[in-house]
Amino acid sequence: MNIAIIGTGYVGLVTGACLAESGNSVICIDNDEQKIAGLRAGTVPFHEPLLDAVVLQAGRQGNLQFTTRLDEGTRLADIVFLALGTPTGSDGNADIGPLLQCAHELAEILDHDCLVVVKSTVPPGTCEDIQALFDTMLGRRAAGCAVKVASNPEFLAEGSAVTDFRLPARIVVGTSDDADAETLKQLYAPFDPDGTRLIEMNLRSAEFAKYACNAMLAARISLINELANIAGPLGADIGPVCQVLKSDPRIGPRYLEPGAGYGGSCLPKDLRALIRMAGDKGETAPMLHSIEEVNRRQVGLVFNAIEKYFWGRFQGRCVAVWGLAFKAGTDDIRESPSLALIRALLDAGAQVRAYDPIAEPAVESSFTHPGLVLADSAEQACLDADVLVVMTEWEEFMTPDFRWLASTLRSPAIFDARNLYQDKDLKSLGLRHYQPGRTFPA
Ligand code: NAD
């Protein structure tokens, strides 16, 4: 099929590259000229495992092209995906203004039948609004073509986006008629070899499914964090408790790591949007509020532990921070707990020496502070530092040289916000060890 993707970000580019890989002819469109120029030259604008190779290969095969022009990109499209960002708006709900503006521009130029598929995360009712917009504008123009709108929210996770797209746990398709669902079934057939993954529903249910999924994931993270916070003072060790939880098939093994709270470009903003939508419908949604509240507190707990360790005085203190990305495998720093902690440390008067294997350029271009130094290596970040905080679970942080850390850190302590290390490995070396869910040794 001929596919156009509008919005060549994390979701749009992965979608475009994987659909091109499966034999479709894909044009990715973005209004960021620099991004498109880079992609034409073979440069993927963000870090995502496997994506460079898929983009390169699809480009070589002639299946994947890039443009800034909406008319050129959509001229032959059977399906047009909308994959623009939907960040938090001023009222807390998703800002779908740019998406609607884009649909408007599309309705001014489309002159052939096609299916417009909303991949962005949008409040229920958005696809119906976009359908009404097409119906009105195409009618007014007497365009002589029919444009249908479908919902196909994306569930990939940054850091494993290509694998997630190639082998999805489920493909959600929301349509207002069977023919549109059939078109999407054909498109996704290579990604659903056993025919069990594609779940059909109406437009609003598909739109809501994405918010429901993110609310459930955020709930698990906040609940395990809250349990960890209770376990510590009760003298229980959350590590083996997590093992018990994960072994229960009714609970399942994932998203049960106590840590510094969730971040990134999806969970926080989608929770906010859902709370706003609930409020608009007169629902108080107490659980959703609690999920957010627990998450907000979590970085504060790491900060409090460091503050306590320094007896409340940050002046003259230097904190090494390992990890800037909101999680391993990505350079995405949107709503990263690490940056929230760094801001709090800098505001309190500490110096920060931070290191991230991938995300430093993203920080350099969006956040500078005279008290923040970005180091070239994990070791370099620790030179002249009093303590170390580990905020992202990158592979290279998993087995550090504790002996070297014990002799290098000026007030040797590791604030292990991701629960990566075993107490016993550190204690014998004189390294103090803070973990969520465990009382900080006096
Ligand atoms: P992103 O910010 O990485 O990408 C959006 C892209 O759209 C940018 O490249 C931007 O330049 C481009 N754009 C904006 N306005 C445009 C316009 N008028 N014409 C052409 N291009 C335009 O966003 P993302 O992370 O890919 O997320 C996209 C959507 O997918 C959001 O709704 C998000 O909630 C959802 N989503 C994201 C993820 C994720 O892990 N990032 C996962 C699932 C769903």
TrEMBL record:
Pathway recorded for this protein: Nucleotide-sugar biosynthesis; UDP-alpha-D-glucuronate biosynthesis; UDP-alpha-D-glucuronate from UDP-alpha-D-glucose: step 1/1
Chain residues that bind NAD(+): D30, K35, T86, T121, E158, K269, R334
Highest taxon of the lineage: Bacteria
Active site feature: C266
Listed GO biological process terms: polysaccharide biosynthetic process; UDP-glucuronate biosynthetic process
E.C. code: 1.1.1.22
Protein name: UDP-glucose 6-dehydrogenase
Organism: Pollutimonas subterranea
